[in-house]
Design brief:
- The chain has 14 helices and 2 strands.
- It is mainly alpha-helical.
- The chain has 2 domains: 87 residues; 167 residues.
- The longest helix is centred in the N-terminal third of the chain and has 26 residues.
- The two termini are 27 Å apart.
């Protein structure tokens, strides 16, 4: 079963390479595919409780991180890079991500504990998001400003939160609004409000995943980047731990226990 799944996703990447897709796009496909492999390996580990299967969980997670990190850094497009056996050069003229792609990259970088990548992504211009999605320009611009503002200790937290709930409420699907709320309570250092917001966000996410017609990016089905990032920040900044069990928030991930020995001890 494990070999079948690995071969399935390997064939997907090979098809992308044979189609001469840009490495930038292939890296995003690697991120997607290794997230599906991560879910599969977690399922296997839950059945076997075998140390080698747990090692596969962490390897799939780290590989997905590596693909995304290479895509974000784009340090020197003249040099070849290799990720998960795929080698090539990044296209410096590849278009920037829309709001959704940018936010996933940012939230993933937070849960990676890669502050260097977070710094790169916080330079993203809200006007870029607006220009890339002109039909949703105001909403895209606001969401970028909201996230950047909540991550800034000097940001206008109350004003942004009021806009989220009053101005843009009707423009955002419930799960998309709910996943942004924990960052407000983080900024306000309100642990009780944060816990409630995390619960609301995961309940909204679960409901959205079960509802036909609700657009959920495939990598977000099992590992919602925004909620994982918020929980990780709560722990890193304030030492907050979850007061409830949450299927969407692996505690070893939230509490930065990525080493095999640390993870198995929890």
């Amino acid at each position: 079963m494990k070999n079948y799944v690995n071969n399935l996703y390997g064939n997907s990447i090979n098809s992308a390479i044979e189609s001469s897709l840009k490495l930038n796009h292939i890296l995003w496909l690697l991120f997607q595919n290794y997230r599906f492999l991560l879910k599969n390996s977690l399922n296997i580990y839950e059945l076997t409780q075998d140390k080698s299967d747990w090692k596969a969980v962490l390897e799939n997670l780290h590989t997905s991180f590596s693909a995304l990190a290479a895509l974000i850094e784009q340090s020197d497009c003249s040099k070849e890079i290799t990720v998960a056996g795929v080698t090539g050069k990044l296209d410096p003229n590849y278009p920037p991500p829309k709001y959704s792609g940018w936010s996933i990259r940012l939230f993933e970088s937070i849960s990676m504990r890669r502050n260097d990548l977070v710094s790169i992504l916080l330079k993203y211009d809200p006007e870029t998001a607006a220009q890339l999605e002109p039909e949703y320009a105001d909403l895209s611009r606001f969401q970028v400003n909201y996230i950047k503002g909540m991550l800034n200790k000097e940001g206008e937290h109350d004003r942004l939160f009021a806009q989220l709930n009053e101005v843009y409420y009707a423009d955002l699907q419930y799960h998309a609004q709910a996943r942004l709320k924990p960052f407000y309570y983080l900024a306000k250092e309100d642990e009780e409000g944060f816990e409630k917001a995390i619960i609301e966000a995961t309940q909204a996410h679960r409901s959205a995943c079960k509802t036909n017609g609700v657009p959920i990016e495939p990598t977000q089905l099992h590992f919602p980047s925004a909620i994982i990032a918020a929980a990780s920040l709560g722990y890193d900044r304030h030492g907050w731990t979850l007061k409830h069990k949450n299927d969407y928030l692996p505690e070893w991930w939230i509490y930065n226990q990525f080493e095999l020995e640390d993870s198995l001890d929890t």
